[in-house]
Amino acid sequence: MNDAHTRGKIRNIAELAKMAGVSAGTVSRALADKDLVNKETRERIQALAREYGFRPNQMARRLRTQQTGVIGVVIPLGHERRQHISDPFFMTLFGYLADELTESGHDLMLSRVIPGDDEWLDRIVDSGMLDGALVIGQSNQTEVIERVAERYRPLVIWGSHREGQAQCTVGVDNRAGGRIAAQRLIARGATKLAFFGDASAPEIAERLSGVKDAVDATGGLASLRSFSTHLASEEMAAQIAANLGELNGAVDGIVCASDVIAMTTIRLLHELGVAVPEQVAVTGFDDLPLATRMVPQLTTVKQDIAAGARAMVDALRRRIGGEDAPSTVMVPELVVRESA
After folding, report:
1. Most buried residue among 107, 162, 183, 250 by CB atoms closer than 10 A?
2. CATH topology of 70-173+305-331 equal to that of 174-302?
3. Region 308-315: what's the mean pLDDT?
4. Where are the beta strands (DSSP E) in the chain?
């Protein structure tokens, strides 16, 4: 009995149309499973395509529809040039984004960008390779992102929302998150607070502002010192060690701008013989899965990364479709565990 291998494969829609005795347009619609072609004809054409190993040219289809089927996921590292995509926060958010996009039939193009000029995002969105772009973090590139967002609509950013901005953002209320973290430490009796994080990034700056709000509300009973602490793994431990050395024991509560900073801080305090939370209480920010896999388990500010990823993809779909999807600001939640 002959099979597709002995008969040879069908090379294009025209050949399949000739074999089926229908027009090329009917074949194209049948393979796309359109109701315009009656069910019996549709199934007969699809069966022939399977029998002869024919798969329609996706590139040609995309050219006709003016869509690529590809979504860009962009990570700009203007302020953290040594930070890697393997960073636990990036990987967690990227994983959720990938799940959402691939389930809707999209391909992904991942770019880690160290901006060398102000045109880096223009080059990505104007490449003709993408239907839209998701940017993870504003870094110190808010002005560049804002300028592109004013003219390029299918663009959604994980980051901070500011009134009147053109860019569509999804993210937590970072100021409120910083405030509830500091309030937790103050409620435990901490009066000498420190903040570890790089405030040159808008999200981190807002977390620091929230910490200041909580400290100011004590009417001078609590104090705050801020230390620039980078997220790049090669620098983080050395910077935190230097921070702790400068504090020289004059601290009883540390608000960290991320879970990874908090985990590193707790490890270094342990090496110094400082008990957490008995001598120094520590909070993180993110609520990564790793937060429950350390000792002591991490008290942290949860930003719902899974819900955020869904909101980003939903907003992007709507924007690709021509809607003007608004920004989403999520409410932070304090997750109390053992470290504070």
Report:
1. 183
2. yes
3. 94
4. 70-76, 107-113, 132-136, 155-158, 168-172, 192-196, 223-227, 253-256, 281-286, 299-302, 328-330, 333-335
